[in-house]
Amino acid sequence: MAIITRYVVEHKGVEKFVTADKKEADKYDKMLEVADNLAEYIEAKGMKFEPNVLEDLAIMLSKNKDALGKLFKGTEAKSVLSDEKADVVALGKKKA
């Protein structure tokens, strides 16, 4: 019989991520915290989105923070996209 440790990341009462790696769970949890902060910031700036669209947008921005940093420094989008695989989310649509 084996004992297995699992780390569960829960967000707004919903289980979002399960792993056996604590660092991976912490990283995912941090990404969700950043996404929450981004969503709050977007709303405070007067942008209106459906709640699920806003959440998807904030998560996509959070997951791609390194690429966004390059874009803010003036790197062309084509270059950033060719350097890494983009995390594409169909905004407003349910994920399979």
UniProtKB/TrEMBL annotation:
* Pfam families (alphabetical): YebG (PF07130)
Look up and give the organism this protein is from. Answer: Paraglaciecola polaris LMG 21857
Which Gene3D superfamilies did the record assign?
A: PSPTO_1197 like
Q: What protein name applies here?
A: YebG family protein
Q: What is the lineage of its organism?
A: Bacteria, Pseudomonadati, Pseudomonadota, Gammaproteobacteria, Alteromonadales
Top-rank taxon of the source lineage equals Bacteria
